Amino acid sequence: MTAMDQPHYRVAVLGAGMSGLCMAIELRKQGIGDFIVLEKGPSVGGTWRENTYPGVACDVPSHLYSFSFELNPDWSHAFSGGAEIRTYCERCVERYGLTPHLQFNAEVQTLTFDGTHWQVSLADGRRLSADMVVSGLGGLHRPNHAAIEGRESFAGHLFHTAEWDHQHDLKGCKVAIIGTGASAAQVLPSIAADVAQVTVFQRSAAWVFPRMARDISPERRARYRRFPALMRLHRWLLWLLMDLLGTLSLRRGSALQARLERRARDFLKQEVRDPDTRRKLTPDYAAGCKRRCISDDYLATFNRSNVQLVTDAITRIEAAGIRDASGVLHEVDTIIEATGFKPFDIHEYVDIRGRDGMRLQDQWRHRVESYRTLMAPGFPNFFMLLGPNSATGHTSALIMIESQARFVTRCLRLLAARDAQHVEPTSEATRRFNFRIQRDMQKMVFSGGCNAWYTDEQDHNFTLWPYSALRFCAEFLRLKPEELKIEH
Prior knowledge:
Elements: E1 8-14, H1 18-29, E2 35-38, H2 47-50, H3 82-95, E3 102-103, E4 108-113, E5 118-122, E6 127-135, E7 157-160, E8 174-178, H4 182-191, E9 197-201, E10 208-209, H5 218-226, H6 228-249, H7 255-271, H8 275-280, E11 293-294, E12 307-310, E13 314-318, E14 321-324, E15 329-331, E16 334-337, H9 346-349, E17 351-353, H10 360-363, E18 382-384, H11 397-417, E19 422-425, H12 427-441, H13 469-475, E20 484-487
Parallel strand pairs: 1-2, 1-6, 2-3, 4-17, 6-18, 7-16, 8-9, 8-16, 9-12, 10-11
Antiparallel strand pairs: 4-5, 5-6, 13-14, 14-15, 19-20
């Protein structure tokens, strides 16, 4: 296909998860129909399509983990399961007429700015171009496989939670779970009763808080359908409560942080009977420095006779199982990696080349930074939803996504109003933004040097937003043309 023959769009959106769908809906709401959504998989849903492990669920309340413009009165549980969220995504596609814009099995390999447009190359050889590219690929996209010697020698089944092998029956198996983060906290209670034995390998203990999970009654769902204002009020109360308490609890040395840590220790003492196991499950860092877990049944699962906690480091994987640093071989026939995802890494699996062939990978080689969490100097008309420093450790990411999507459409309107072609941030504005972010990051517990996935080797936090979600929304209410390069 020649450049003259290839399709061209006003906007190319990458990914059909929550970010990509939100962007597509915002474009439709603004009357922009000339766009395409490129999705590598066979359907929408993003992380909720990829993650199908037992117990998978959102750790944000259902009525907050939904779009503000598409509230759902029919959530069946206070914390929705993955399948229910995926159904919600499919309903959004139908309701907002996105089907004609969706292109599945379209994995993007390269993005190249040719001075006028973005040239997009797909893994299957197809090409297209666009005036603007919006990445909805998110900051947690690819599974983080454990770098352990001997993986290839294991004689049993080994898979990541995000690549769950549903053909493999765990009933009666001897299972190892590597990791004790959010996915492990959901998987362990879901499989413990069926397996013969499960050995959990812990590198560092997680702060675990009660989830207080509950079903939403049919009566309450009917009430929300009849009185949508009540549902919206409930959402606002959830937002304000989580935003206020969450932000305060993440401030270094705050009274609320100390109180939450006491609550977590009390919960641990209440749930785990064995003192030695309790000691091993007690974190040695500030709550929030790493991602906090919420679960009603994770800790109690360690009371089971068939559940073992190992805190010795893993030395290697052998044919029969996992050998730890003390020399003990733990014989298992199944290994489950609950090791999360690689942090913001779009520049590693998509070759992105901006002005004058500049590679985003090279720009971020030493430090991942952005302008206002979604743009980078030298990359005109390129936006990243849930880009660097837009994640939150205390509330719904969808709040950030909606604000960023509206920011993108404001940029489109700015270009139209000025009869311009390209917009990108200045290097100075980008520098000032990151200086402020990193300065204020020091006031928060998640810059505490606890070796979290939030940070790089220099303890530079390129993942989290150090303020409230309300402030995020306020900062994104308007453009700052003086901080932008606008080209005609």
